[in-house]
Specification:
The protein has about 160 residues and is an alpha/beta fold. It contains six helices and seven strands.
Length: about 160
């Protein structure tokens, strides 16, 4: 990634878009730059939903933009467009999708969902983000299939994925 960590690249991009950045589920022994709010998951081991719930609980804003920490090629243009669309027509969750493939870890969530998300996690029925958002007023933000959009939603699971 041209000598820049995924963390630094995302912080550089997101710092232009948001006044507050919250990292949830981040390892306790890892330092983050000043100004980043680090919160532990209230439901350890419950995956991304636990991080979304913890972030909602500490957020000082009514909505949060959620992204996967393993997404190295976030697009400022797509995030701005998604935010503008959300503000024009709010929903509980705005999830982008390409060719009917949804990406709930690049979405805008209403923090008013925190209590229902907490109850969902406590029920133990599912840990899948898509199952939770199916119980909300979800709206999909359809993007044209393009290399930029596909790249923005790519996550890194192996060293080989970095060359995508």
């Amino acid at each position: 990634m041209e000598g820049i960590t995924i963390l630094q690249r995302n912080l550089d991009l997101l710092g232009h878009l948001f006044r507050v950045i919250i990292f949830s589920g981040w390892p306790d022994d890892t330092e983050l730059p000043a100004g980043i709010i680090k919160v532990p998951d209230n439901f350890p081991g419950m995956g991304p939903l636990a991080g979304i719930e913890a972030s909602m609980k500490v957020a000082a804003t009514p909505y949060i933009f959620v992204f996967g920490g393993d997404m190295p090629w976030l697009s400022e243009e797509i995030i701005k467009s998604q935010m503008a669309d959300f503000l024009e027509t709010p929903a509980d969750v705005l999830v982008p999708r390409i060719n009917n493939l949804a990406e709930p870890l690049h979405a805008i969530y209403n923090c008013g969902l925190q209590k229902s998300l907490e109850a969902f996690l406590m029920s133990g029925d599912s840990r899948a983000v898509i199952d939770f958002i199916g119980e909300t007023r979800v709206r999909y933000y359809d993007l044209p299939s393009s290399s930029e959009a596909t790249r923005a939603f790519t996550n890194i699971n192996t060293p080989e994925d970095l060359h995508g």
